[in-house]
């Protein structure tokens, strides 16, 4: 079965109050649909970095995020992943302000996940000018 690394933005869109912004509301709905209809077709995992990010902020949101994450196996942020994240940043593969995103990409790479599921498109798939 293929594996999916679940990044924090997915959990956020999954449990957020529906947005009035049409694009955000659409992304939330796509996330909920995927979670309900497709998630069971994959081995979904999250890292300790996702847990750390989900543990910050509004207490009610934190409760919702952690409830979702409780159902997912967690993977450690290994020393190899930490080094790979530093390389992503030092080589310019990711922008300097994307340290947490670099960790997600590095962990997904280190565990050989088949997919990285994220809504962090500005970092991972920036538009060219």
- Terminal CA distance reads 38 Å
Can you tell me the CATH topology?
Rossmann fold
Largest sheet: 4 strands, parallel
Secondary structure class reads alpha/beta
Please provide the ordered H/E string of secondary-structure elements: EHHEHHEHHEH
Briefly, what is this?
The protein is α/β, with parallel strands linked by helices and 129 residues long.
Description:
α1 packs across α2 and α5 (79-90) packs across α6 (99-110). By secondary structure, this protein is of the alpha/beta class. The chain has helices at residues 8-15, 22-37, 48-54, 59-69, 79-90, 99-110, 121-124, and strands at 3-6, 43-47, 74-75, 115-117. The protein has 7 helices and 4 strands; from the N terminus they run βααβααβααβα. Helices cover 54% and strands 11% of the residues. It has a 4-stranded parallel β-sheet. The mean pLDDT is 92. It has a single domain (3-120), classed as 5'-nuclease (Rossmann fold), CATH 3.40.50.
Topology readout:
Elements: E1 3-6, H1 8-15, H2 22-37, E2 43-47, H3 48-54, H4 59-69, E3 74-75, H5 79-90, H6 99-110, E4 115-117, H7 121-124
Parallel strand pairs: 1-2, 1-4, 2-3
Helix pairs in contact: 1-2, 5-6
Comma- or semicolon-separated keywords:
single chain; 129 residues; alpha/beta; 4-stranded parallel sheet; Rossmann fold
């Amino acid at each position: 079965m293929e594996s999916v690394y679940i990044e924090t933005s997915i959990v956020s869109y999954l449990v957020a109050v529906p947005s009035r912004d049409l694009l955000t509301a659409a992304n939330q709905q796509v996330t909920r649909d995927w979670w309900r209809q497709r998630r069971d077709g994959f081995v979904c995992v999250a890292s300790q970095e996702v847990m750390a990010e989900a543990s910050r902020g509004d207490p009610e949101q934190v409760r919702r995020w952690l409830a979702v994450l409780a159902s997912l196996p967690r993977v450690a942020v290994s020393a190899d992943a930490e080094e790979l994240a530093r390389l992503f940043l030092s080589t310019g593969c990711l922008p300097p302000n994307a340290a947490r995103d670099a960790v997600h990409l590095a962990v997904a790479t280190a565990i050989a996940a088949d997919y990285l599921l994220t809504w962090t498109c500005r970092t991972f798939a920036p538009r060219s000018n």
